[in-house]
Amino acid sequence: MMAEEIKGWDRNGMAARAAQELRDGTYVNLGIGIPTLVSNYIPKGVNVTLQSENGMLGMGPFPFEGEEDPDLINAGKQTITELPQTAYFDSAQSFAMIRGGKIAMAILGAMEVAENGDLANWMIPGKLVKGMGGAMDLVAGVGRVVVVMDHTSKHGESKVLKACTLPLTGKGVVDRIISNLGVLDVGQKGLHIVELAPGVTEEELRAATEATIVG
User: Fold this and answer.
1) Do 143 and 104 meet the contact criterion of CB atoms below 8 Å apart?
2) Which residues are catalytic?
3) What is the CATH number of the domain that holds 196?
4) Which helix (H) or strand (E) is 99 found in, with range?
5) How many domains is the chain built from?
6) Contact status, residue 19 vs residue 38, Cβ threshold 8 Å
7) Where are the beta strands (DSSP E) in the chain?
8) What is the pLDDT of residues 4-33, one digit of tens each?
9) Comparing C-alpha atoms, which of 174, 196, 202, 199 is closest to residue 183?
10) How far is CA 16 from CA 34, 60, 76, 202, in A?
């Protein structure tokens, strides 16, 4: 009996697809979770500068085992590498870059996204959180917000909704959603299908999406 073919992208597949959004010469912030993997899939010939809001401009890929430097971490406290051109600064200067519109794009994780681009990605009521982090500043200050997320919860419930149920990080801030099932753009009247993940049909994507898909 043949094993059932796995449909859609896994975490690395989503990160690789998100890396295709990168544009040469831009400054990009990678959020905690799946987005941190994007640094491993930057396309050849594309020169981007990755920013971490804890005070680093010019992040390299994850280090090989045994080559970690505990002093070099991203906002998610994962060890990373530096580049010859890496610059370091305090949090005030980091958020001045973000709030001042110097960062072209943020690639972030999400718990929920609504069809109008509302984003919820910082807390679940009743659960302990360390703080909201920089997500609220990022979604308000960057030029483009791309969300990378699982399309459904572990219980099979859609996380791409008509309206978010969790506390919002920002209203109408998401431009593009990249999930394990495909790529969706936020439009004025709902979501537009840009691309289907490998092995996923349009019917399967629509069935897994509570939000309105208009095309």
Assistant:
1) yes
2) 53
3) 3.40.1080.10
4) helix 91-99
5) 1
6) yes
7) 27-30, 49-52, 56-59, 82-88, 105-108, 112-114, 119-120, 144-149, 160-161, 176-179, 182-186, 191-196
8) 456 899 999 999 999 999 999 999 999 888
9) 196
10) 10, 16, 19, 21
Half-sphere exposure of 101 (CA within 13 A, CB side): 1
What pLDDT digit, counting tens, does each position of 77-99 carry?
Answer: 889 999 999 999 998 999 999 99
- The structure tokens 């092995």 sit at 199
Range of the domain at 188: 11-207
Reported pTM: 0.91
What gap in Å lies between CA 180 and CA 147, rounded to an integer? 12
Whether 52 maps to a domain, the answer reads yes
What whole-number distance in Å separates Cα of residue 149 and Cα of residue 137? 20
pLDDT number for residue 62: 87
Q: Per the domain annotation, does 73 fall within a domain? A: yes
Q: Which residue has the tokens 């991203």?
A: 74
Residue that is written with structure tokens 């804890």 in the block: 54
Give residues with Cβ within 8 angstroms of 18, minimum separation 6.
34, 35, 38, 41, 107, 146, 148, 178
Torsion sign, CA atoms 171, 31, 47, 89: positive
- Are the CB atoms for 45 and 24 separated by under 8 Å? yes
Q: Is residue 5 in some structural domain?
A: no
Residue 187 domain-assigned (yes or no): yes
What's the rounded Cα separation, in Å, for the pair 52 and 81?
12
What is the spatial distance between Cα 183 and Cα 201, in angstroms, rounded to a whole number? 12
